[in-house]
Amino acid sequence: MSSALTPTPPAPDSIMVRSEGVHKAFGRVEVLKGIDLEVRSGHVMCLLGPSGSGKSTFLRCINHLEQIDAGRLYVDGELVGYRQKGDKLYELKESEVARKRAEIGMVFQRFNLFPHMTALENVVEAPCKVKRKSKAAAAERGRTLLERVGLGDKIDAYPSQLSGGQQQRVAIARALAMDPKLMLFDEPTSALDPELVGDVLDVMRDLAKSGMTMVVVTHEMGFAREVGDTLVFMDGGVVVESGEPREVLTNPQHERTKAFLSKVL
Amino acid sequence: MSTTTEAPSEQASPIKAVPVRHPGRWVATAIVLLLLAMFVHMLVTNGAFQWRFMRENALSSPVLAGARTSLVLTILSMIIGISLGIVVAVMRLSPNPILSTTAWLYTWFFRAIPRVVLLVLFGNLGILYTRFEFGLPFDRQLGNLLGIDINGRLFGVDSRTLLTGFMAGLLGLALSEAAYMAEIVRGGISSIDPGQHEAAQALGMSRPLTMRRVILPQAMRVIVPPTGNETIAMLKDTSLVAFVPVTNELFFQLQAVGNRTFRPFPMLVAACLWYLAMTSVLMVGQYFLEKRYSRGTRTATSARRWLIFFGGGNR
Fold it and tell me: Structure pTM?
């Protein structure tokens, strides 16, 4: 893949995401009960697990869409949502949180494209308004990105005129337009018709090959096996098992993993 | 699958079926047209309308000045009402409980008081304040408390120069409108999928930027139609400023002509026609606004409905 997808190659062997004992509760319901994980730069981690296992919540914690209650979460060596001075934690200002979010791309299950903007307008919105890029430069790059995801002929289409798979690819292009150092995917193919899943997975596969660091919540076992560097199985708010995807999928060690895989495979 | 390939070609030709007849529709149409004809006949033949007299007086210069006042009042009070309404709506949705309660109290008060009462009240505000002064709050009270003479007043104006009838009317209408607009805007903002907010946040957009570029443009689609209603209602409610009292207003002027000449009815008809005309102009504006904010969505046009009614086009 050319440099259009990853303008800044990550430093090899550094840790992009580190999670230490992350806890999160919604009211009295504990959703995350101590998550310890590491994602290396340039690696792809796939999160797998039954619904309600906390995998989406964990993903949303990484860019501070959810605030964690305990533990530490680092992205690229920096605490998420806080600044540490001595023993004290200081909450980051909204503008600082926003600046950090701008470096992390996120793709949602329901696409969440802006329906009042065309595909190209969706892609250039944040580069123009957040990064203050010139309109021409942003549009140029936006076109390149939309061509990359196979939608060069749809730049002036509104989301309502696109299929689910096309919308999701626009959403990926929109996230990439911010030149993120990390991409988060929250069940990107779960809302798609089966025949549209392949196009989206192809784009993600190319992205992974180009060296993008990715955390992917997915039920696509084939994708996890082929593209993932690590596969993490979560259940009940804890990491049950993690390792090389082929290993975990063919030779699961835990009963819960075995039970889950026997139902979905 | 195998049978479809053998399908005879006559099944693939376009369907030419006899459409369902709707005799009821034609009967209803005939009745409505008959009633309409009777009404028009009455308009032409009844001498009490005095059309010539009405034409001569409906466009006299005091009436035109009144129409201008009504229009200016409508536009200004809607501009203030919408701006303030957006502020109140955002306050209402704020996580800060003091802000949201204040916004609630505001809408509660201004929706509860009838506009006529509000306008008379504002017309008499001069009784409450003889002068309006701007400066430090509670300066005299603090001065008395501390036993020193503080004068924190920067400048002041006599209430009669500031609070003219026009200003009182404008204030009354605008503040009351803001309460209704706040509810409309709040409804519009709440109707937007929370995923939109999250997507904008995930892209690093700040809260105000998200509001301005993502949420409000979409909320406008929900906000514009009721705002059109509000504007039309406002145009009609400007006739209430006669109670402030403001006399160079459209309805007051038309009535004055009627009373002076002892021919009130033609002038009332003139008032109807004036408001009809001005409302129609506003509706054209609303049409274009709605078109502007429906980007990315598709709706059937009313032209297509006519086509379907007369048996053409597809349903």
Answer: 0.77
